[in-house]
Structure formats: structure tokens, C-alpha cells
Amino acid sequence: MKVLCWNTNDSVLEHWNTVCPKGFELVQSNSIETSFSLINQNEFDYCFVYLDDNEFSVKVEQVVEIRERHPLLKIIAFPHLRSQSAAIRMLSKGVNGQCSPYIAKEQLKLVLSVVDSGEIWGGKDFIQQLIKQSSTSVETSDDSMPFEGVDLLSEREVSVARFIAKGLANKEVARELDVTERTVKAHLTAIYKKLHIKDRLSLALLVKKGQRSQEDNVVVNG
After folding, report:
1. Domain span including residue 12
2. Alpha-carbon distance 25 to 21, whole Å?
3. Cα 73 to Cα 83: distance, rounded to the nearest angstrom
4. CA distance 18 to 10
5. What is the reported pTM?
6. CATH number of the domain that 110 lies in?
7. H/E element holding 140?
């Protein structure tokens, strides 16, 4: 595995070299410009980005830019200080995960496994927290508002999608619909396939995007 490491912190880079699985080749970059140049000249499996406190918000946007220009590259951000707003920005734009810069070896192995399977890594509880936080920005509770791809889903799948967008865990959705948790997971698998998305955060953001669009239309037409 070849990993581009945009990282100017030698201590963090040394740690990554220590905890990365055997066979991983780490290539260091010191700037966004060098990163793009290296990506264009090589085939990388991953891009690790260390986000220090210096121009943090600028670097967050640069991570998003890498994602937009190279949609197939697996990108994991390693912020020095965690920021929920930065996490929402990066993960909602398709960044594959974020972790502590000094992540343990076994934990990194788990992260890579999750990302390789097509899921977002942020920690299960953290992802759920992001969904709940983003749901508070949508004022409406009107469950009739459509979202992109809603016509592709069954009535039960639409209900599951809306509960996920409200921040409910699978067990809570199962309780609301009086079904088993396994059934909820099966519905989610079908939803992801039909809507061409990978995870519950992407689903929640898709549903909320539809709600916001409807609210904007109400404001414009009101």
C-alpha cells in the first residue's frame, strides 16, 4: 500500500511509520502543491493529512479540495485538535475518516478496515453525534418533505431514512417501527445501494438537504 502523507510534523510522521501495517510505503509531502503533484505522478491507496493548529480552517478546505479533485483516493484526516464543524465539513464532502494523530497500531488497523469496506470512520458515537448535531439545523419536522432518490425507496425504507436523519440509532429505529434491528440493517443496506451512498451520515445529509431545499422554496414563495 502506498500512502501520501501531507505532514510537516516529524514526530507524527515517525509515529505513522511505526503504527502502519507491514508493507505500507509512506511518501511525505510538505504542502498542498506538492501533494497534488505527487498524486498526479503516482498511484496512492491512501492520503493521510495531519492538520495542525496553523491555518487549520484553510487546511480543512484544502483537504476538501483533494477529495473533490481525486474522488477515488481514500483520505484520512488527523487533526491535532478535534473540531465538530471541521469534521462535518470534511466527512460530508466525502473524506473517509478522521483520527487522532497518535493513533494506536490496532486502532489504525481497524480504521483502515472500515474505510476499505466503504464506510466513514469517525468512531460510531462521533458519527451519531454529527448526525444529531446537523439535524438541529433543520427547523422543520415535516416528514412529508421529499429528498433526492425518495421515489426509489419503499415506504418502509423512506421511514427508516427519515429516522436516521433525525439521529436515531438502529435499535431506536427498530423500536419506532416495531421491527428487529436486523431488519433495520437490511433496509439500510438496500437504501445505500439504491441511492448510491455508503453510510448513514451520507443518508442523513441527503435527507436534510431535501428538507432545506423545501424550506428555501417556502421562503422564496412566501
Report:
1. 2-121
2. 9
3. 23
4. 12
5. 0.68
6. 3.40.50.2300
7. none
Burial class (CB in 10 A: 0-12, 13-18, 19+), 204: buried
Q: Tell me, rounded to whole angstroms, the distance of Cα 135 from its chain centroid.
A: 16
Residue burial 149-166, b: 16+ Cβ < 10 Å; e: rest: bbeebeeebbbbbbbbbb
Q: What are phi and psi of 215, to 5 degrees?
A: -65, -40
What does each C-alpha distance from 139 to 32, 151, 209 come to in angstroms? 38, 23, 12
| Same domain, yes or no: 104 and 204 | no
Q: Which three cell numbers stand for residue 29?
A: 509531502
Give the angle subtended at the CA of 8 by the CAs of 95 and 75, to the nearest 5°: 15
Q: How many CB atoms lie within 10 A of CB 87?
A: 22
Closest CA to 110 of 25, 12, 19, 189: 19
* pLDDT tens-place values along the chain, 222 residues long: 999 999 999 999 999 999 999 999 999 999 999 999 999 999 999 999 999 998 999 999 999 999 999 999 999 999 998 888 888 889 878 899 999 999 999 999 999 998 988 778 876 667 777 777 666 555 444 556 678 889 999 999 999 999 998 888 899 999 999 999 999 999 999 999 999 887 888 888 888 876 655 444 433 334
Distance CA 144, CA 202 (A): 20
